[in-house]
Write the structure tokens for this entry.
Amino acid sequence: MARPLINAPAKLKRGQVFEIKTLISHIMETGFRYTTTGEHIPRDIVTAFSCSYNGEEIFRADLYPAISANPFLTFFTVATESGTLDFKWIGDNGFSETATAKIVVE
Amino acid sequence: MGKNIPTRRALLLGGLAGGLAATIRLEPAQATPERMRAAIRNVVGEASVRKGRVELDVPPLVENGNTVSLGVSVDSPMTATDHVKAIHVFNEKNPQPNVISVHLGPRAGKAKISTRFRLADSQIVTAIAEMSDGTFWSASADVIVTLAACVEGI
């Protein structure tokens, strides 16, 4: 259901500052809505996101119901060495999703 | 007799004073509502928040409050000794004052993030950056929303 999308350049120069774009499909139900019959729709959101670069955390975000459905998040980092970027999303009802991206630093 | 019964004059004066108080209380309607201020206090503590160094990029007029693009960049060299530790975004009229909190470090290289968020009403959005030296900087933007998000039923 939740399919993450990562966009990061595959080849980089050492010291280069580059942008990482992430998107995960998720309804991000706010918990403030009701159905037409008056039933409360329980909250179901992604609450946390983190990104590690070769095991070291470089970015972390706390998400709230105000974030749109299918959370899209971009941020920057410095290319230090070749390796992997690990992404992790955690949310309500035991939601957990991971993704990885390989980068080559020349 | 009549000591404890308010005279017409007293009532009139009282009404006038009440009216004045009401207008005075209405005046800062543009200011940050209490909820958002409390949420900001929660993050910054006793520190003072100064305007500047933060650039908040939100469209001034939004047609659909369900997806509003949000960009925050902070003027910082992002070195080990001088960098942005966190960026917090707040709103004043959604059911909850928080939008997002991100934690960065010197490895970010550039203190810039973007995402998409919801707005339940036309309101002021505030971004606050926490620096490594303990100072807080902020920027605010006014957003007009024509179709609100969050609270509509399905």
Summary: The two ends of chain B are 63 Å apart (CA to CA).
